[in-house]
Write a structure and sequence with these properties.
By secondary structure, the protein is of the alpha/beta class. The chain contains 13 helices and 17 strands. The strands form three sheets. Strands 8, 10, 11, 12, 13, 14, 15, 16 and 17 form a nine-stranded mixed sheet that branches. The protein has a six-stranded antiparallel barrel with strand order 1-2-5-4-3-6.
């Protein structure tokens, strides 16, 4: 009730605010330059062009001029067009009515369903929970994927990256998690995706059952960079609303790299100098500001799963390296495994969860360590085995790994439609390493 009253107060303040007009004084590429209007960074303005109003967001200011980027089609805009300020940043509707809905990058419904009227609205920008107010992560969140639940265990409130080059199965793994997770609500952000793949993801990968407990935010690759960037914050803000209501949410973002690319376009258009591999400094300031908003709070939790598209399979890619330093773990997908038909193509030895020891039992930790030792031993002698140079009895772990490798691969492989409960994963892992 209090949220609804606040919503009405905001609308009343908007109704009595005096209108100040600015003017468009320049249009260059993605950049719209506006004069005569006081506004803060992040504020939404409205350009009243001949083709209808076009929203723009303030990204830089100086010398009485505002540098803005459009959130819509700029065709028909011209110098001299009038501009009005909304007086605040982007607002979006929130509430349980969003479950099962598909929204665009600005939080508007795009699935043909009913309008989201009468819901409370919130400003997209928000502060992360204070560091000392965050409860420690102490409970495992089941994802339904054996390789992750058993060997890269994810805690409720953890933030983890799924890192790989293009075409290795990041989106497929994410859709598998969306169907198999123990979380009651999933917020899924598809950012920079091909338009063709959105419907495939919703109907084939996610399915009706997965969609019913999900909220999907979509900003395809042809959207303006501000919309693609804002989609990440819209999805995060929706997840925060559910967390503040005491829920446990999974936030899945595909992909974090395309969010960074959108910020690169924005930064360069605003006049920032390019730095590391053409990324301006604002990109590396953006990542912690976005990622720190997930995690635990005194009320609930957001478990963040972010795919990271690394350039040329280089795990030292600037975005991948920066994300890895902020996140609480990473899952590395291997192109060699993917091309051999091994799905999910998780390279277990290169992947790590920084909270695994806090969320699994000592027996589970012992079983997972034993399997990692077997995989490491197998990797060390694999080439010798392939050329017939390995002598049985040289290494006890290697001998055990060679004998168990078919069963280990059966454990690590999993069909997309196969969802394994966490208890069954631990039971199968214990039986495997003690056989």
């Amino acid at each position: 009730m209090s949220a609804l009253l606040e919503h009405h107060r905001v609308e009343a303040r908007h109704a009595v605010r005096p209108v100040t007009l600015g003017r468009v004084v320049g249009l260059l590429g993605l950049r719209v330059t506006i004069s005569g209007l006081p506004a803060a960074l992040g504020d939404l303005l409205e350009v009243r062009g001949l083709g209808g109003p076009v929203p723009v967001e303030v990204v830089a200011s100086g010398d009485g001029l505002l540098t803005c980027l459009p959130l819509g089609d700029t065709t028909g805009l011209r110098a001299g067009d009038h501009v009005v300020s909304t007086g605040e940043g982007l607002r979006i509707p929130v509430g349980d009515a969003l479950r099962g809905r598909v929204l665009d990058g600005l939080g508007r419904p795009m699935d043909g369903g009913p309008a989201l009227e009468g819901l409370p609205s919130v400003v997209v920008d928000n502060l992360p929970p204070a560091a000392l107010s965050r409860p420690r992560i102490a409970e495992q969140l089941g994802l339904g994927v054996r390789a992750m639940d058993g060997l890269i265990s994810c805690g409720r409130g953890q933030r983890i990256g799924i890192m790989a080059g293009s075409g290795v199965g990041k989106s497929s793994l994410l859709s598998m998690i969306a169907r198999g997770t123990d979380a009651e609500i999933s917020v899924i952000a598809l950012i920079g995706e091909r338009g063709r793949e959105v419907r495939e993801f919703l109907e084939n990968d996610l399915g009706p059952e997965g969609l019913q407990r999900s909220i999907v935010v979509v900003a395809t690759s042809d959207e303006p960079p501000v919309v693609r960037l804002r989609a990440a914050f819209v999805a995060t803000r929706i997840a925060e609303w559910f967390r503040d209501a005491g829920r446990h949410v999974v936030l899945m973002m595909d992909s974090l790299t395309r969010v960074a690319l959108a910020q690169r376009e924005i930064g360069l258009s605003a006049g920032e100098p390019p730095a590391t591999r053409g990324f301006p400094p604002s990109v590396f300031a953006l990542l912690p500001r976005l990622l720190e908003r997930a995690g635990t709070s005194p009320e609930g939790s957001i478990t963040g799963l972010y795919t990271v598209l690394v350039e040329g399979d280089d795990m030292q890619d600037p975005i991948g390296d920066s994300a890895r330093s902020i996140l609480d773990g990473h899952v590395v997908l291997s192109r060699d495994l993917a091309t051999s038909g091994h799905f999910p193509s998780i390279d277990v030895l290169e992947s790590i969860s920084r909270v695994a020891t806090a969320v699994i039992s000592p027996e589970g930790r012992q079983d997972a360590t034993r399997l990692r030792r077997l995989l490491a031993a197998y990797r060390s002698v694999r080439e010798l085995v392939e050329i017939g140079a390995y002598v049985s009895g040289t290494d006890a772990d290697a001998d055990a790994a060679l004998a168990l490798m078919p069963r280990i691969n059966d454990f690590l492989r999993q069909d997309m439609s196969d969802v394994t409960p966490t208890a069954d994963t631990w039971s199968a892992l214990h039986e495997l390493v003690n056989s």
